[in-house]
Amino acid sequence: MSSRLNLVRTLLSQSSSSEDRGSGGTSAEASADTGFQTRTPETTPNSQRKIIGRGQQAGSVPTIGTSGLDSSESDNQASVVSSNVGPTLSGRGRAQFIQGLLKQPLESGRSVPTVADDSASTISSAPAVSILGAGRGRFMQQLMNTRADEPSVSDESKTQLTEQMSQITIAETVQTVEREPVKRMGTKGTPVQLMTNYIRIACDPDRGLYEYEVRFNPEVDSKVARSKYINQHREVIGNAKTFDGVKLFLPKKLPNVETILQSENEVDGHTVTIRLMYKRKQRMSENIQFYNILFQRIMKVLKMIEMGRKNFDPSAPKLIPQHRLEIWPGYVSAVDEYEGGLMLNLDVSHRVLLQTTVLDHIRTIAKSNPSDWKNLVTKSLLGAVILTRYNNKTYRIDDIIFDQNPTMTFMSSNRQQQISYVEYYKQQYNITIHDLKQPLLIHRKERRIAGQDKPQELMMCLIPEISYLTGLTDEMRNDFKVMRDIAAFTRVSPNQRLNSMRQFCYNVNQNKEAREILEVWGLKLDMEPLVMKGRAFEEEKVIFGNAQVGVGKAGDFNRAVTSSNMLSAIPIRKWLLVHTNKDMKIAKSFMDCVQRSCRPMGIEVDTPAIEVLPTDKTELYVQLLRTKIRQDTQIVVIICPTSRDDRYAAIKRICCSEIPVPSQVINARTLANEAKNRAIVQKILLQMNCKLGGTLWSIKIPFQNVMIAGIDTYHDPKQKSNSVSAFVASLNGEYTRWYSRACIQSKKEEFMNGLCASLEKSLRAYEKLNGVLPQKIIIFR
Q: Name one GO cellular component term (predicted).
């Protein structure tokens, strides 16, 4: 770089020196020294110098002109270089070199040296040297010529421009234009009017969510102090607001773009100036979370109890006294923006609660299993959700401490004294704890503290005697009578669902506090769910092995499934039937029913190999399966006298992992009712055929070579570290054959890792069966 710089400076010096000497030097000599073809055009002292590079595009650079010096000022005065500075151009090679050359005299104040005699020479009259070429230089010259032709800006124009710039505010001037959504309407089927479970939320056009940036002078670091200063000006900003310490959101726009407020520091009495600077009015789609928070507030105003993501009404329970159960009605809600604007998605939900306490549950287990009751209690309660009726809150059981009891003490909230749990509940809720030897239930939760990166873990101790179980036990789920009585309340018709939604809308609009939560933000909930146009398709035909059956308007074809031949039936020749000695009669009845039902369904079933166990001990099932399952065994059917998770898990571990074979586990109680045996056995035969690779039925699919995949994840609350991801994908065009895979996901492992591996394996299986890969993949999540 230094050699090129010296070269150009020498060139300029020779040019100016030759002009001083008159005929002492020519441009040809300079050309011989530099390798450039040079010309000496007749130009004014301040003309621009052309610099052309090798490229095909070029720009112009400022003129390296000179200004005359009076010879009387100094005999040896250095020459002065001036330039009309153009736009800053950055580049590489010559462009960067010339740009640096032009900047150096201006930034460092150094002049370009000239070769002159002892007398002071005035170089302002020296003609500029024109260096011609092609590329970047020509482009830069054209640019500078254009700038040189522009008229100079007067002082008056500069003043006007400054005034205009000072009037520009920080508010955004670019308005986002929201386009109308594209609506595509179907043409097939019959048009029908549909009642949806969406309720429109009307929005006042003069209201919304207005964003302001808040600045404090002097700076206030504490978020709590910032909020305190903001709250001192409710007469200006109103009562409704949301403030995160930097951004302030208001339901209305303030009169001025910038609002100045004054607050007083309570510590030193100094004035704190608050500047509210208007940014913009946010779109509805940007504030979906905020609208959902508003409806959570409304749920609390309506005195509903939040459990998970749902809210339930404890004031209107449905009692099932014969099973010591009660059902709370409730809703699951979500706000989002759709084609018609902001809407509330509302659906009916129910929560089943037991009228028995956790202590009752512990005593029942301890009475039936006195030797191992602690382990059984831990397994049954870990991860369970309980309700404390004294405050109507729910907690998850994370641990059970058997070596502590309610007489243990803890530091009170004011940290003034130690207090026992018995004393605490008596003072706070007027509740008397009777069993002083019961264990304590542990609930852990995390709380974030300002200034700390990691959240603080808090441990809460709960008393089993005043804690109630929620949900259903496995025994209840397997009890037909219990499930039937529960379904009488939880299985609602469309009209009942509609009436429940209307009741919610009525409660919100009639409750003054709930209504004001919406009105202050310019919102109003409609009284009726949204009605829209839909289309009813033609009746679908279900294809069986020997017939095509219409499903009717109700879409019910259960009778046709058991009375028609299966589409693809696998003959069952070699299979194993296992039962206990006391279930001999039930097993014989099952076999008789299988022989009567199999032929109408189009499946051939031979007599199985029967194994009888003396008792229902789990280890007996495991030993028998390990010894009796053979290479040609198609399926194993096991009739168990009761439902037990440990036994079921042991059987499936043998049949799914250790000795892979299809298996069917049947609870003997489901076969006890002989009047319903035929229907139950028919459904069992359907399951057995599917597990062997058979096909029950199909429908006409309007597209080909498309894979349909499904994904789900199971999180066990008792094992927080791992979860199980399940993946299924169709393999054939009739969607009757499927690939399935499950994988364990650690807590910190990326979910996509298991998904990618599962999808890759399913694609290989699809290609192996069909010879080609699918053209499209539809994934349901």
A: P granule
